[in-house]
Automatic annotation (TrEMBL):
Transmembrane segments: 21-45, 57-75, 87-106, 112-135, 147-168, 174-196, 208-230, 236-254, 275-299, 311-329, 341-361, 373-393, 405-428, 448-470
This protein's name: MFS transporter
SUPFAM superfamilies for this protein: MFS general substrate transporter (SSF103473)
Domain (Major facilitator superfamily (MFS) profile) ranges: 21-474
Species in which this protein is naturally found: Streptomyces pseudovenezuelae
InterPro entries recorded: MFS (IPR011701), MFS_dom (IPR020846), MFS_trans_sf (IPR036259)
Top-level division of the source organism's lineage: Bacteria
Amino acid sequence: MTAVVETPARALRRTYSRWTALFVLCAGTLMTILDGNIVTVALPAVQSDLGFSGPGLAWVVNAYLIPFGGLLLLVGRLGDLVGRKRMFAAGLAVFTAASVLCGVATSQGMLIAARALQGVGGAMTAAVVLGMLVALFPEPREQARAIAVFSAVGAAGGALGTFLGGALTQALNWHWIFLINLPIGIVALLAAIRVLDAEEGEGLGRGADYPGAALVTGALMLTVYVIVGSGDREPATTFLLALAALALFTAFTVRQARAARPLLRLRLFGSRLLSGANAVQILMIATMYGFQFLGALYVQRVLGFGELLTGTAFLPAPVAIGVLMLGLSARTIGRFGPYRVLLAGLVLIVAGMALLSRAPADGSYVADVLPPLLSLSVGFAAAMPALTGLAMSGARQEDAGLASGVFNTTQVVGGSLGLAVLSVVAAGRTERLLEGGAGLVAATAEGYQSAFRVGTAIAVGALVLAAVVLRPRAGAGS
């Protein structure tokens, strides 16, 4: 057989095709990430319009997180079986349709049900993206650049969602934070069908271990439910639910060890890099998600910013993250190695949270919010691509879709954990101060300071864990 010689023109077309595919993957991911944050600033308007109670309002967020976090492993494996392109495109379609249902919702039940459907579509999309990215860019240097671009979109998208949520809610109404997904979703879906390479997958005949899928999906959904609702329940109830989740995880592990065709190959966790990176990510994302949520509340409830001004106050974050990830991240990782870059980023995250824990009741945005915001943004811009590269380098090619699902799952667990823990700490401290006669603004600020101190400790834990577990072995490079 005559070998096909790759001419410069053919190589250029192949490169253009791969980066176009990356753009499509980023567009689909951006839509789901924006939606996770765009709701936060609009919650007071949703509550006023639909009559949610305080605890009930939390389910506008929780209804999305629970199916999203619970289904990632299952749809990641199904993506390997049916083809990742099919799963990604189907996820975009489900997410876009659910967004329209959210946008036209006129009752609490309709909005919560549509948000749950959004979570299903988001999981289908997110679970397979990293696996597709690694397959598109197998060469280490190009893969580092592609991961930097993808991470920049994800990280900046979270902060950008806060701005768009405030802008759309104040300029139009809260319905548009969901309806804006319709044109984006249609364009992304059509582009995905046209641009992404089709994959046959292993075939459903290989099996997805459906009993195992039921166990792990139930375990993950229950875990997220336990975390996000912990502040609204009696401790004994939370403990019993946590035990039930642990029992489901145990049954799932036993099932995977014995199943002929397991959903989750346990050998995956034999990789020090993959397991360690996921553990570090839970702590890092817990810190960052807690900062995004409580930082926005500090700006609104303590500094007195409105919805649009709050969103604008967080704009330096996506700008800094985008510029650094796209312009410097891949080159920095290539020069110093992902381990050193990750540690440097985590140091900046610790410093940012420590600064934020001093934000007073009479503080100002320029002096007390902007410096830690920039430190956290630069730190995350350095740490996230390095951590992603370390995690995916620890997975075999045939496990890429599953490893992508695991990595996205730990993001959701980390975000839910950070939101639950830091919110409970802030609310508990504020309530005790109010009972002691403190003023509302002073008590609220002190509550946020306590939460940010806990966030600093979590970030220190991520730094220590990364330094110990992810240290390169002798002869393995940086």
